[in-house]
Write a structure and sequence with these properties.
By secondary structure, the chain is of the alpha/beta class. It contains nine helices and eight strands. Helix 7 links the parallel strand 5 and strand 6. The longest helix is centred in the middle third of the chain and has 16 residues.
Amino acid sequence: MSAATARKSPMRTVDWLSLVACLWILSSVAFAHEGHGPQASPSPSPGASAVTPTAGTHDAQTYFTDSLVQDQNGRSLRFYSDVLKDRVVLLNVIFTHCNDACPLITRKLREVREAMGEEAASKVTFVSLSSDPTNDTPQVLKAFAEKQGVDGPNWLFLTGDKAQMDLVLMRLGHLIPSPEQHSTQLIAGDVANKRWSKIRPDAPPVAIAQRLQLLSEPMAGR
């Protein structure tokens, strides 16, 4: 992690345009996956220039894309329309054969939900995206979610065609050469009101819960 990243606040709300820039940079400066080598910057794939975020990208659906994905129950979903639109979300990236950071962070996020309480937690959708869609089928993700005790209606584990998942991960700043090199950075968002926070994975569960509760509150109540 660079010195510049270390100086950043663990949870800093950014507006939509700032998010576009930050997410593009995130893939090269965010935390590398614990237990693996330093995270490499992604090499541009053919046609990557066509999806490079620009200051003119104002529409969330166009930016995040409506790529077709599948959840742990085998349901086909459109990434923006069915997963993000009008929701408060917490996004992270995993792969199921990981033996260190992925299960640890998943369990921490379970603690976050517990810290929020049932009513508050029901207002937030947790979204875990696979960085290894070739191996992480819906059935494999289902088994992972059940093992971690987090298989529920407000927690989506997403996989799909590799090209579609690569596009989604690219837009989140997480496209990398191998599943092990994905970032462990968390991204929290109030999608409807274009309010976003980047959250360090080592932040205390209570602090993450407070950030999500803040994003869940109506704008008029601030």
